[in-house]
Amino acid sequence: MAAVAQTKMAVANEPQFPLFCKILNGGIAGIVGVSIVYPIDLVKTRLQNQNTTSGEKLYKNMLDCFKKTYKAEGYLGMYRGSAVNILLVTPEKAIKLTANDGFRHMLLDKNGKLTLPKEMTAGGLAGFCQTVVTTPMELLKIQLQLGAKKSVGQRASAFILASQLVSTQGVSGLYRGGLSTILRDVSFSIMYFPLFAHLKSLGSHNQGTDDVTCHAPFYWSFISGCSAGAFAAAAVNPVDVVKTRLQAQSQAGQEGPVTKSSGPATILGNTTKSPMALSVKTGSRNIHQPNVASNLAYKGIGDAFTRIYTEEGWRAFFKGATCRVLVIAPLFGIAQTVYYLGVSEYLLGVGSK
Fold first, then answer.
1. What is the pLDDT of residues 280-339, one digit of tens each?
2. Which of 7, 33, 84, 127 could cross-link 185 (Cys pair, CB 3.0–4.6 Å)?
């Protein structure tokens, strides 16, 4: 009993990052990571949103999408929608990383150990918590990446998009596709965090421990984050494709059948409903607007999965998979390195881990 009490006391007294430092670490990691990989994320979104049922294929591959986007929109165009991502990535990373640490400690057994099912539970709960931020962040980011514009022809901003959604649909409008986001992020975190912990333990100075706070060389934290992120990202790509399609399709398409017209198509709804409605370029076909059959909108996750498989085949679920891996792997490698190196502690003079 005394040994158990000592173990519990040791666990309880284990040093923790101050909350502010955790938030700052997550913010620094997110800003650096997003700034580096955002153009790849934009290409990923456009590839995933490409529906080839009509026989047309706008982008042959990732490189072709890069070239066409850069030629049409320039360097700054490759960062379309990045502002909202950078703004919200601070709380997103803080919630995800801090929540996982918190749940892992809450689920420790009497011997201070964590079983694999409990590791997965902690990761899944952390993924669920982060969706409070990631759902509106990704909804706005995707619509900006796909070329949302004001009816007057000016480029839309995240603020205008958010204001339009809230004014027409309430706060719930910011959570369109929320269920698919939860499904993706929870599944990702269930796989990512346990895998990261076990990979990191292989390079730890204390061999045999699977604690994510164990000491390991910074480069090993980066490698572990990249490897775990790459695997989890590829595994949940089918859900990410469905989420992208649901969040990208027009609100008019969600509410009922959509018919082709000579007027401007809108991202958030019919232009007759509001003078602030946002539209996209028109013509024979818009290269960024969801290329869903003109009279059919996805009714939900199940319908989207079924129709994508039926109309486009199983390969459609892995559209943008390479881009997604190239985005997630370094992003989480950087995040884990910054988070566990304690960059904010160093900057603030709080002390080292």
1. 333 333 334 444 444 467 888 999 999 999 988 988 899 888 888 988 888 888 878 877
2. 127
Domains and CATH numbers, the chain: 18-348 (1.50.40.10)
Alpha carbon 336 to its chain centroid, in Å, reads 16
The Cα–Cα gap between 61 and 63 comes to: 6
> For residues 43, 49, 55 and 59, what is the CA-based torsion angle, rounded to 10 degrees?
0
Q: What angle do CA 186, 192, 195 make, to 5 degrees?
A: 140
Which amino acid is it at 245? R
Contact 225, 195 (CB under 8 A): no
- In 89-227, the DSSP E strands lie at 149-150
Output Rg (C-alpha) for the chain, integer angstroms.
Answer: 22
Structure-token match 């939900």, residue found: 300
Instruction: Give the max Cα distance, the chain.
Output: 79
Q: Which of 243, 249, 255, 248 is nearest to 169 (CA)?
A: 255
Global pTM reads: 0.69
One-character DSSP codes across 187-218: HHHHHHHHHHHHHHHHT-SSTT---TTS---H
Residue 155 DSSP one-character state: B
Q: Specify burial of residue 150 (Cβ count, 10 A radius: 0-12, 13-18, 19+).
A: middle
The span from the CA of 226 to the CA of 228, in Å, is: 6
pLDDT in tens, 54-78: 556 778 888 888 888 888 888 888 8
